[in-house]
Amino acid sequence: MEDTELALLVEGLNNDSPKKQMEAMNTIINTVDQVLGRNLWLDYPFNSHGFASVYEKVMLTLKIDDRSQFELVDFNTDPMHTEASSTEETSIKKSLVLITQAIQALAKAPDPYFIAERLPALGSIIIPPLEKLIETTERIDSKTLAALVLLQLGSDKGVAWLKHIIDIGGHYSSLAANSLATKGFQEVGDNILNYLRKCDLQEGDKLIAMITALEKLDIPLPEDIHQKLNLPEAPLGVQLILAHPLQRAKF
Q: Which pLDDT score, from 0 to 100, does residue 125 have?
């Protein structure tokens, strides 16, 4: 991949257009998959060293001792700057560059939602840098989306942060509640109930999402919350869902 092609991909990742973001992500996913293939996916948790076996294999192949090359402690680190000794190594290094750019976009793109939506397709090889991102970024939406991707890939590194987002009713709190409920985190019920006790009744869609998450966990609404959500000023949709609860699939 030439520098101009990489520059166009980076431009697409950081574009305001969801379509251009998706196109750039699909190109990255297809390119990386051609090089690493099945190595993108592996069993989690990682080994005793804290890294996936494929990560160890890639680093060994590249003869790179410094793990930070892929941990992304420094987002400006570019594995392509090291000399490649074979075509295979060159391809792997280019793949790591693309993965780095995708995660960098999650941290810096104007709206990183569509980046996060496609990230899981890169496989569990992205878990270490995403876990590092959660520790280092101060951007709330990026941290929340990284935690949601990690949860989907089998890492609980961001669970505590997702619970916090639910407590404060922050951006993506509905998605966080339902994702954790789907994964069977029973304790998140307390966070949802705490939110419902202090929430604004006009947040209709969010209230319905929180109730749905509780249903997935088979947690009934306490009487005080039930009364609050049935107040006349509560949205009609919330009142209807309480009056006619559905048997929603718990998956």
A: 80
